[in-house]
C-alpha cells in the first residue's frame, strides 16, 4: 500500500486533480494522499533503514534551516509555512526509499511518471496545434515585435500541478527521458524500441513544444554524458554540440535567443543573490524570501538556495546531491578497479578498490565480459541483478545531471523532482549495501570534504560569472 499511495501522491502533485475538478480544492487531495503514503510507508522506512545514509540527516538539516532562516529574520510564523512547504515537496525522498527497495519498483515508479507526462503531452499538443488561447496547457509568451510594434506571441506547452511552467515541464521531461533507460534490456531490440526509444522520442517532442532553452542545454549535456564512454570526450562533445546547433537552426527555442543580452536579467538576479548572501551568509534571507528582496527570482537553484538558507542550509542541500552522486559512483565502481583481471590483484589494484570505498576486489572480471551461457541458474540470476543495479545507478546519475543542468537556469531548489531522484539514488545505494554487506561505503570524511569543496567552488563560480558579465 505504501508504494501505491506514494505513486498516487506523486501523480496528484504533478497532475493537480483540482485543476480539472475545482470542487476538490477544499479537500486538498495531494495532502491527503501524502499523509496516507507516509503512514503506509512506515514499515518500509523501518525495513530499509535510510538512517544508514548521510542524506537522511542532511534532509533534516534542510528542514531545520528552512524554519531557522525564517525565525532569524524575524518571522516566526514563516517557520511553520516553510516547514510545511518543504515537507510536502521533500518527503518524497523518504517515500521512495521506503517503497522502492527493488529495481522493479523503481522501474514501476519511473514508468508511471513517464506515462503521465506522455498523456499530458498528448492532451496539450492538441491545444498547441489548435493555437488555443483558453487551454490551461498552453501559455503565450511575447518573443519579439513585428514591424508595427505588435508583440509576436509564442505558444509554449506546459503541464499542471508543480510543473505548470514550460521550463519546469521541460526539466521533468529531460529527467524522464533518462529514466526510461531503466527499462533498457540488452539484446532486446524490439522491447527497447517499444518501451524506451519511442517513448523517449515522444517526450523529446513534448520538450520541443515547450521551447525551453535550458532543456536544450540539458539535452546536450545528457547526450555528452551518454556518449562519452563510447566515443571519447572529444567525439561526444562534437556530436552533442552539433546536435544542439542543429536543434537551434530548426527552431527548438521558437525564436527565443540564447546569449549574453538575453541573460542580463538573470545575471542581475545572481548578483543580487550574492549581495544578499554577503549580508546574511550563515542563515540566509529566509526560505522562499528571495523575491521579497528583489523583483525577480534567482533563476538559478544554487543561487536561490545559498541566498535563502545561507551557508549552513546550502551545505545540507548540496550535500544531499554530492552524496547522491558519490553513492551512485560507489555502486558503479564495484567492479571497475579490477576489470578484466585474470590473476591475483596487485597492491595498486587493492589501493584503487579502497579509494572507491571498497575493502578489496569483489569480482575478478567485469560483468560485461562474462559469458552468461557458462553460468548456472543462481549465477545467471545474480549476474542479471548486478547488471540491472549498475544500469539503474548509471541511469539515475544521468537523470540527476539532466535535472541539475536545467536547475542552473531555474529556481527549483525544493521541487519534488529533485527529491524523487535523490530518493532513487539512496534506494540504489541501499540495494548495493545489501548486495555487498561487507564492502565499505564512501567514508564520511570524504562526503563532507567533497560537499565543502563543491559549496565553495559553486559560490566562487557564480561570483566569477557575475564579475565577468557572461552567462553560460
Query: SS-based structural class?
Result: mainly alpha
- Portion in helices: 55-70%
What characteristic shape results from the CA principal axes? globular
Low-confidence stretches: 337-366
Please give the number of β-strands: 2
Q: Secondary-structure element sequence?
A: HHHHHHHHEEHHHHHHHHHH
Major β-sheet strand ordering: 1-2
List keywords for this structure.
mainly alpha, two-stranded antiparallel ribbon, 472 residues, globular
What does this protein structure show overall?
The chain has 472 residues and is mostly helical. 67% of the residues lie in helices and 3% in strands. It contains 18 helices and 2 strands. Strands 1-2 form a two-stranded antiparallel ribbon. A hairpin with a 5-residue loop joins strand 1 and strand 2. Helix 1 runs parallel beside helix 8, helix 7 runs parallel beside helix 17 and helix 9 packs across helix 11. The protein starts with a helix and ends with a helix. About 6% of the residues have low confidence.
Structure at a glance:
The chain is mostly helical and 472 residues long. It is built from 18 helices and two strands.
Annotate the secondary structure layout.
Layout: H1 2-15, H2 17-20, H3 29-40, H4 42-48, H5 54-72, H6 76-90, H7 92-99, H8 103-129, E1 138-145, E2 151-157, H9 166-179, H10 189-210, H11 213-249, H12 264-279, H13 290-293, H14 301-332, H15 347-355, H16 377-407, H17 416-435, H18 444-468
Antiparallel strand pairs: 1-2
Amino acid at each position: 500500500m505504501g508504494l501505491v499511495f506514494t505513486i498516487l501522491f506523486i501523480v496528484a502533485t504533478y497532475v493537480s486533480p483540482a485543476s480539472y475538478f475545482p470542487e476538490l480544492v477544499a479537500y486538498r487531495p495531494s495532502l491527503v494522499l501524502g499523509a496516507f503514503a507516509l503512514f503506509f510507508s512506515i514499515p518500509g522506512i523501518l525495513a530499509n533503514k535510510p538512517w544508514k545514509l548521510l542524506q537522511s540527516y542532511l534532509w533534516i538539516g534542510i528542514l531545520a534551516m528552512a524554519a531557522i532562516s525564517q525565525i532569524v529574520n524575524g518571522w516566526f510564523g514563516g517557520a511553520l509555512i516553510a516547514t510545511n512547504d518543504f515537507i510536502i515537496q521533500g518527503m518524497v525522498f523518504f517515500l521512495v526509499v521506503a517503497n522502492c527497495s527493488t529495481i522493479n519498483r523503481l522501474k514501476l515508479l519511473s514508468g508511471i511518471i513517464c506515462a503521465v507526462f506522455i498523456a499530458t503531452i498528448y492532451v496539450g499538443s492538441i491545444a498547441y496545434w489548435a493555437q488555443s488561447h483558453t487551454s490551461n496547457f498552453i501559455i503565450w509568451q511575447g518573443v519579439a515585435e513585428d514591424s508595427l510594434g505588435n508583440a509576436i506571441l509564442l505558444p509554449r506547452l506546459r503541464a499542471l500541478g508543480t510543473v505548470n511552467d514550460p521550463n519546469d515541464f521541460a526539466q521533468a521531461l529531460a529527467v524522464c527521458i533518462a529514466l526510461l533507460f531503466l527499462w533498457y534490456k540488452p539484446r532486446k531490440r524490439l522491447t527497447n524500441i517499444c518501451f524506451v526509444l519511442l517513448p523517449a522520442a515522444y517526450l523529446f517532442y513534448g520538450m520541443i513544444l515547450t521551447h525551453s532553452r535550458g532543456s536544450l542545454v540539458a539535452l546536450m549535456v545528457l547526450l555528452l554524458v551518454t556518449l562519452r564512454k563510447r566515443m571519447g570526450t572529444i567525439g561526444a562533445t562534437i556530436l552533442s554540440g552539433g546536435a544542439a546547433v542543429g536543434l537551434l537552426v530548426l527552431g527548438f527555442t521558437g525564436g527565443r535567443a540564447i546569449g549574453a543580452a538575453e541573460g542580463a536579467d538573470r545575471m542581475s538576479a545572481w548578483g543580487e543573490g550574492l549581495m544578499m548572501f554577503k549580508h546574511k551568509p550563515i542563515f540566509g534571507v529566509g526560505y522562499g524570501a528571495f523575491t521579497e528582496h528583489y523583483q525577480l527570482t534567482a533563476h538559478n537553484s544554487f543561487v536561490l538556495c545559498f541566498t535563502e538558507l545561507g551557508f549552513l542550509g546550502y551545505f545540507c542541500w548540496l550535500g544531499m546531491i554530492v552524496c547522491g552522486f558519490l553513492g551512485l559512483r560507489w555502486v558503479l565502481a564495484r567492479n571497475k578497479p579490477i576489470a578484466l583481471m585474470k590473476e591475483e590483484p596487485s597492491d595498486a589494484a587493492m589501493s584503487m578498490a579502497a579509494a572507491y570505498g571498497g575493502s578489496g576486489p569483489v569480482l575478478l572480471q567485469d560483468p560485461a565480459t562474462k559469458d552468461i551461457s557458462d553460468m548456472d541458474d543462481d549465477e545467471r540470476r545474480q549476474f542479471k541483478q548486478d547488471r540491472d543495479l549498475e544500469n539503474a545507478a548509471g541511469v539515475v546519475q544521468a537523470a540527476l545531471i539532466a535535472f541539475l543542468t536545467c536547475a542552473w537556469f531555474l529556481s527549483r531548489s525544493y521541487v519534488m523532482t529533485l527529491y524523487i531522484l535523490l530518493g532513487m539514488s539512496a534506494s540504489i545505494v541501499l540495494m548495493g549495501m545489501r548486495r555487498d554487506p561487507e564492502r565499505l561505503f564512501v567514508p564520511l570524511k570524504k562526503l563532507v570534504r567533497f560537499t565543502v569543496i563543491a559549496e565553495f567552488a559553486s559560490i566562487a563560480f557564480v561570483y566569477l560569472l557575475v564579475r565577468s558579465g557572461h552567462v553560460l
